Amino acid sequence: GNSVTQMEGPVTLSEEAFLTINCTYTATGYPSLFWYVQYPGEGLQLLLKATKADDKGSNKGFEATYRKETTSFHLEKGSVQVSDSAVYFCALSSNTGTASKLTFGTGTRLQVTL
Amino acid sequence: DAGVTQSPTHLIKTRGQQVTLRCSPKSGHDTVSWYQQALGQGPQFIFQYYEEEERQRGNFPDRFSGHQFPNYSSELNVNALLLGDSALYLCASRPPGGRSSTSVYGYTFGSGTRLTVV
Questions:
Q1: How confident is the model at residue A96, as a pLDDT?
Q2: What CA–CA distance (Å, rounded) separates B94 from B27?
Q3: Record: contact B42-A44, CB cut-off 8 A
C-alpha cells in the first residue's frame, strides 16, 4: 500500500536559518505529492504540490522537487521566519484506479526562534 | 468565499454514546472526505463521498458511517464511542474532476471538530 515517511521532529531553528524537512514515499503508479501545513488550532492548508517527476512545487518561499528516482519530496526554505512555526505534513495521492484519497506522513513540527 | 465549514468545533461525549459531525464543503466542490487525526499523528482517511454515495473507505470499523446530501454537505456518524475515538476530525473537499482534480487542486480542509470521549 501507499505510505509516507517524514523526518521526526521537532525541528528547532533560528530565524533566517535554512530549512529541510525530509519526506520519502512508497506508492503504486505515479502519485501526486503535496506538502500541507497546520498552524496551532487550525486545519490543514495546502502549501505546495507536484504532479509528476522533476516537477518543483513552490509557495511562500518554500520549495520541493518530485524525485522519482529517490522517491522523495523534501521541503526546503532558504530563510525561515518565526511565523513559519507549525506542523508540516507530506502527503501523496495515488493516480491509479479510482483512488484519490490523501495518505499523510506523521508530520514534522517546526519551531523557529528569534 | 467561505472555505470548508465544520461544526461543532469541540465536543465532549461519554463512552458508548453516538456522535454526529457536520461539514459544508467549499463553494463549487462536490466531493467530501473525512479524516481522523489523533494527537501527534498525521490524518488518517476514513471515507469519501461523491454523488451522495460512499466511494472509498479507509481502515475504519462500521461504527463509522457517513452521509452526503444533495447540496454536497456531509455528516460523519460514530456509534458506540470508544476512548480511542478521541481525535480531531477533519473534513476536506475537492472540486469536480475526479482523480485529476485531486492532483491539480489537492483538497481544501476545514478547521476540524475536536472530539473528546470520556
A1: 62
A2: 10
A3: no
